[in-house]
Design brief:
Blueprint: E1 6-7, H1 12-22, H2 24-30, E2 32-36, H3 38-46, E3 51-57, H4 64-72, E4 76-80, H5 82-89, E5 98-103, E6 119-124, H6 129-141, E7 146-150, H7 159-164, E8 174-177, H8 180-192, E9 198-202, E10 208-209, E11 219-223, H9 232-237, E12 240-243, H10 255-276
Amino acid sequence: MPARPRITARNARFQQWEALLSNRNKRTRSREFLVQGVRPISLAVRYGWPVKALLYDDSRELSQWARELLRTVPAEQVAMAPDLLSDLGEKEGGAPEIVAVVEMPADDLDRLRGGSDFLGVCFDRPTSPGNIGSVIRSADAFGADGFIVSGHAADIYDPKSVRASTGSLFAVPAVRVPSPATVMAWVAARRAAGTPLVLVGTDEKGECEVFDFDFTQPVLLLVGNETSGLSNAWRDLCDHTVSIPMTGSASSLNAANAATAVLYEAHRQRLAAARRL
């Protein structure tokens, strides 16, 4: 077996991986991003995402999980000095055992699964990668079939987004699109194929409260930008809008919290409908 490469200095290869943490353009050009943590890496492998490299700390006794990963995952294996791996792992208090370099899938809306029971989320111009990851996590928890980021927005593959998703990024197809027009072409194709997809926007002045809307039909939930809400273009495209009734002094919810509340209600309705069958 050939010797595994070992990196002990901040050479060009290390700098290439380090740039994936902060440079969106380099992530996009290389179609690679870094994944940190046992659960996210395990889910990336479980769901078949191509792992390009496993970077590991060879100065310590690795756990059974890490050894199994190195034994079974078909990826380049690179031993790395712990201080360098700590930088890539962005972890306080020492280096992680392993950091994975993972290949990005294509931004293809046809990756979104689901038919007559489709439930998806489209996030309009989100500025916070943490919010993106949080909504993906909620989408996974409440049975959504896909997630879309529309317009000029934070990056799905930003390390903050990947961490906030706690691995759900690898379970829920997530796609970046430049504009509503791209989504609407896909919606039109779905409708033509027999799925009566309904676009439902969240809005504090919605036409009805979330509990009074029928979420058992195929739905694409539209969630607005954290500061300005849905763009005028998306508002015009909504088939319906729903509001979340609130009490107390809060005037609104964080975008990720609002999406989670509506996704929970959609999931609750669908579970109730299934139990009635």
